[in-house]
């Protein structure tokens, strides 16, 4: 039996749509005993004491105790699939590299032990084969079932002038790694020497080095790993880089889940700890923030007398610009789904407090207001781009200062919003108010995908349409719905737009279109299937057509193009960190490699990821894993970039783990939503 990637995804969706059987312990004398000691009732009553609201720092011990109980509970009931310990791909046949992937083997498909992923394009397609039995002729046991994903060999999928960088040629770690880290603050729990040893041995692969640094970046709270430092630069001032950022932890969490065997504990602890922080009362001056707001970051504070560890969280009150992180809650939901997908530990997502945490996040976004659009109105600096990138003016003249940037309805947030809605849709239980919330989610998913697919999409034909727009149209028959004045189209877009390709533009609101390219929004749109299949293909076409601009010498441009001169002064407010081609203003961020890799595998063009990974491998480790690069092609290490930036390292690991085993993609990707897919909005035929 042979299945395509699309069918495999469909199976995943179907299995998610079906309610999972509740994992309940065997009843003993009317109640259920857990781990030979606790009854289920005792456990429930312990859970009830876990009031998410207003838990003070000192009460954390009680929460920890509960977490322990939950761990006991889950350890009895969990079905964690046995993973193959084989990480090395089988020897490539003439056409394929064969990769073991047992993680997603489904018990219900015992006989389907070999599968392949078939992409949309023959050139980069991932193929599948199946065999009915194991080598000895016996049907494979469910837990032994394995999927073998066959990825076309690099020779056949690479374009003529591109070859795969052999793993062994990865550059040696920067010689400064060991010595610099030796002097690093003991509070960061670095054990000096191991990295130096790594450097001295000279033969360690970049991945091994990456794992070592990631391990050193673990943050412990009461003896348990709960996240990772944002950076461990031994020279630069720590500022808030010695904190665990929610968004930064996502690639680390994914790397831990994709690892063989997976390291799930840190992800679970992170999810529970941030959930606990969500329960705090959040105040900035005299104003109380919404209940559902998740922290941007947190840190563990050590007190010497008496010895005590406490958590300190930032909900935007300490952040530059005092903006709450809208993306944190969405990432939290997304990584919760990844955790569930990897471990099949449904009990975590089904915990009442986890269900409540999800609902609180969604309530922040789904409440009624004066909105006329399904998109989410955001303040500047509320996501990865956490500094001002917005214009105070709306000068719609040929001077091209008509940016709305991050303020308004940024694609970065809209795509994450959509992704989180769909992930939550899979995990929310319909009990009590759940059913009503699920209905609201369904409606928003439909409206949001229509709005983004229709009004954010830009390709050659659509650009030409906007260029010819009439203005001041009134009523439902208006073509130029937002009264965009064609003179506000910046000159660069006409040159940038290829005949083949397209993308979701940065922001759309009345009379304002920010035509800039933002990578996170576009890749998340592909992963969440907010982009239609043809739009997703067109985004990848654009990346290939504009490789020098969007990838350059060091992947990947966070936004394109850079704001310069007067435009930079107005839009960024003279921000010295966001000068042209630096930081958020056209800088290149290695962390984004994992998003590009996931998106390119999803649409069957892994050669795009491989080209980008090859570039990263030439410099990232040698340069000390910087946070970002500067310059039009990303040639220079960013002027204020931290070294040993954890998410630069984790982004590389996730990209490698996905290329090595494309089935890892299922942890962070959703198939098209059949309900919203019709009527299909295709990109205009521009080539
Ligand atoms: C910078 C980035 C932000 C990131 C933080 C920690 O402020 O702009 O996205 O979360 O550093 O790495």
From TrEMBL:
Reactions catalysed, as given in the entry: Hydrolysis of terminal non-reducing beta-D-fructofuranoside residues in beta-D-fructofuranosides
Domain of life: Eukaryota
Keywords: Carbohydrate metabolism, Glycosidase, Hydrolase
InterPro entries cross-referenced by the UniProt entry: 6-hairpin_glycosidase_sf (IPR008928), 6hp_glycosidase-like_sf (IPR012341), Glyco_hydro_100 (IPR024746)
Residue segments, region Disordered: 1-35, 104-148
Cross-referenced Pfam families: Glyco_hydro_100 (PF12899)
Metal-binding keyword on record: no
Residue spans of biased composition, Basic and acidic residues class: 1-25, 104-131
Its EC number(s): 3.2.1.26
Record's function text: Invertase that cleaves sucrose into glucose and fructose.
Alphabetical list of PANTHER family matching this protein: ALKALINE_NEUTRAL INVERTASE, PTHR31916
Family the UniProt entry places it in: Belongs to the glycosyl hydrolase 100 family.
Protein name per the record: Alkaline/neutral invertase
